[in-house]
Write the structure tokens for this entry.
Amino acid sequence: MQDQQRVWLWNIVFAAIVFAMGYSVYLASGKIDYTWRWDRVAPYIINTEPQEIAAPGDGTLELGSDGKSLQLVLDSGDDPFIVTEYSTMVAAEGDLIFEGDIIATLDDWQTGPIIEGLIVTIEISLYSLVIALALGLLVGLMRISANPAVRNLAILYIEVIRGTPLLVQIFIMYFFFGTVLDLERFTAGVIALSVFTAAYVAEIVRSGIQSIPVGQMEAARSLGMSYPKAMIYIILPQAFKRTLPPLAGQFINLIKDSSLVSVISITDLTKAGREVVSGSFAPFEVWFTVALLYLVLTSALSWAIQRLEKRLSASD
């Protein structure tokens, strides 16, 4: 009973601290000479305003043969401009239409640039995560190899990558290797993030493998298993369980580091945020929204890895 009361007491203390921090932020925001306009950000997330359908040239508006679609007969003699989907007809049948005039509107929700940037960030992070995990596992195994050449190559790769900033690596990957190999911006960004993260994954894998008692490998070999089989079926599964928490931290860093690819004009979440700020004149609202979306991504990944960790621990 006392333990339960103590838990409730500390939960109340936690809630009070969170409330105090939130209230402090609220008081601080009130001292800034700034008008908060969250409504300016909403259209850049989900745009619910009707789409305007403009005329591509001068012509005469007519109804289609089905009596529903719109057909703009162009004065240039080109094929008619046909509108099959619309909600409201702005111009009337027989009207003379000039280029740029609004013919009709369509009630349809569209994803704004912030959501489109979020999708790009998710794609970059997923591709980079998979490649970094595979490459990091390979380099980690090379790092503990008995072959001096293979081991030294792995050490050189890890030291060079970890000893140079990611931003510099992105520039080199895009402007140098991208030019030589004719890489697209997206591909260059994924490769740079993968190579950078793989260096840290390799060290995590190495430490996980070396934390397993040497006797387990010796026992597996004495039973007739080859070194690769013993590594795959005995050592790596145990090392994976032990390295899951640091791997989770590295993958969360990967999501946050993906914001740096915006320097090579990849319209990820960060670059989309900068573009929205210039158009909405609501910098605080936009950057709070961007930060919240990054928090959602990292929290979802953290939750998924925690579930996987519990499932693996239950299988012991």
